[in-house]
Amino acid sequence: MNKKKMLFCVLAVVVLSLGFFSFIKANQKKVVEIPTVEKKMDVVVSILSEKENVENYLKKNITILSPIPAVLGGTWQVLSFTINVENKTGTVLYEDGHLSENKKFTYSINENAEVLSLTIFN
Length: 122
Known about the structure:
Blueprint: H1 2-26, H2 37-65, E1 77-84, E2 89-95, E3 100-109, E4 115-120
Antiparallel strand pairs: 1-2, 2-3, 3-4
């Protein structure tokens, strides 16, 4: 009879332990990481840095990037631009004092948001 009581107690402890751990596991709350202000700011700074680098690259290199040569001794100057950082595309409006061009472009950057290449389409 003693063995039966001991076996019953062991089984009861095992069953209760399994039930307890199952209950705990089922009621555990999942940890969801909420982006901090710092992480959001890093993304904003990264986008602004990318846009600034593309702008500077366009302004500095528009003369060689333009598929159309400037005329009558003029020099290309960037007037305005738009950039889509998600698609790495944009538009640029530029003129040489005689002609005005509005063209689409694509670009690529490295991990530091520095422009590796930029192509203006004719």
